[in-house]
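Risk register update: the risk that structure generation would not scale has been downgraded. Supporting records follow, first protein first.
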Amino acid sequence: MFVNCLKTQNKLKSNKLKNLKSVLFLLIIFLHQLGFSQEFEVCKSEKNDKFALCKFGTPVTSYSYDSIVYLKDNFYRAYEKNKIGILDYRAQLILETEFDSLIYFPQGKNFFVWEDKKLSLIDSLGEFTVKNFEVLLYFSDSSFVPYSFVNKLDLDYPFMYIKSDQNTGVINSDGFLIQSVTNDFVWVQRNSRNGGVNAYLTMRNNAFYAYNVLLTPFKYFVLKDVVGVLENGTYLIKDDKDYKVTNSEGNIINYIQNQVQYAMLTNAKWVFVNSNGSLVSDVEYDFIERVYSGNEMSQFKAYLETKILQFDKDGKLIEDR
């Protein structure tokens, strides 16, 4: 009996110790997330008025920075000659001081950086996830706006349609890459009425993959000579000089009545297209969308740099403002 009691007491002590360790572990994580786990202090040299990271008063970096500012998650902004870099929890310079501006995303522990007006996405190890891209479109579940109209980095929109070299992709405002820029083209399928995102379609070397909004692939097919995707999800192909509309099997679609639609070209520009695939005009826009009055589609709205153009159902210009 006495031995059993001792075993029980020891077991209770062991459980309490485990619980205490768990509480301490959670507390450490909590304090870390609040930013109280800062490892170093910032020191200033009396000799050259430069700054360094120090630990218990001893410098662990050189006194070479014009300023050092604690960021979050043990990252530090380091400033040198009006350029910005990043020091990490080891006091290692993971981003050289060569960027014009920088935004940190704690959710993904990555960075947006600017250099010579070009954006890049960089991970917490200082590796480029996407290098030198431009934002073409901002979008949410209910609206799309071209960058040319906003003309600034606007993180109020949850998603950004981007282009790097000749490839396109999608990044969210937390700095996560939703669709890789290794794709030749990404089409964001929208609900024509409420503008919400239904699916993503990616193209790479004539191979197409369709994903739902949870990024689960649900369709794969191969289609050659595609130069764009129409708003109803059909495909614009170019054979020699002629444009045609096809389905995903490559069957040409012949509409009885002409109905103008918009299409996004693989160069990420937007055009008006007749039902037979011919272009209404050669003008390429930054973005096109339908405008509804009640349940009826009333007109198209097209963005061209800083202008908003209004077109009727036949793609004819109504107003230029």
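Supporting record for the second protein:
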Amino acid sequence: MNLLQSNSAVESASVRLRQHVRWLPADMETPIRMFLQIAHQKEGVLLESAEVDGRWGRYSVLGTDIILTLRCQMGQLMIESNDIRFDSLRVLRGMPFVEGLREVMRRLVIEADSRFDMPPITRGLYGYFGYEMAGLFMPKLQKTLLPEQAECTLVLPGTIVLFDHLYNRLCLVTLGGKSEKENDPLAGASRFERKDRSEE
């Protein structure tokens, strides 16, 4: 669910987060191995590229340091976060889930790092929609797909590792809130050649 919006939406947003991007070599790493390395002791998300016609998709995404969680509970929006930047969203708790989710997406904007043309997949919520969610999106189905049974969890990671399989490199994307060292899941990984490939 993309959180990159138009200029007018950015101006009216109550929560504005800015990406910080750093490119690194990825010669020795795979998404699964890195996921096991940095997310085994905390919550994380891994979206690995699919193989089509014998070729892998371009990107894989690993997300960790979850800073915002949205859930559907009894058809209502639940918001969980310990980050004060999201305090203004707490008033949306208890809203009908679909309506509340749309309002969260209207109020929350992630501004891309202007130095890079990052893919939209780095600016979004990650998670799943259970089958019964169709009853919330399509009211005609609510007699058989009960809203109170609908399940959904969407998260916003504070740290994203984007694997670019085309150029065999990875990108560390953070949303701030910690020092650079604390927000860097690759810190201390001796097998990495720590060269910043960012271009000013």
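The mean pLDDT is 81. On this basis the risk owner (M.S.) recommends closing the item.
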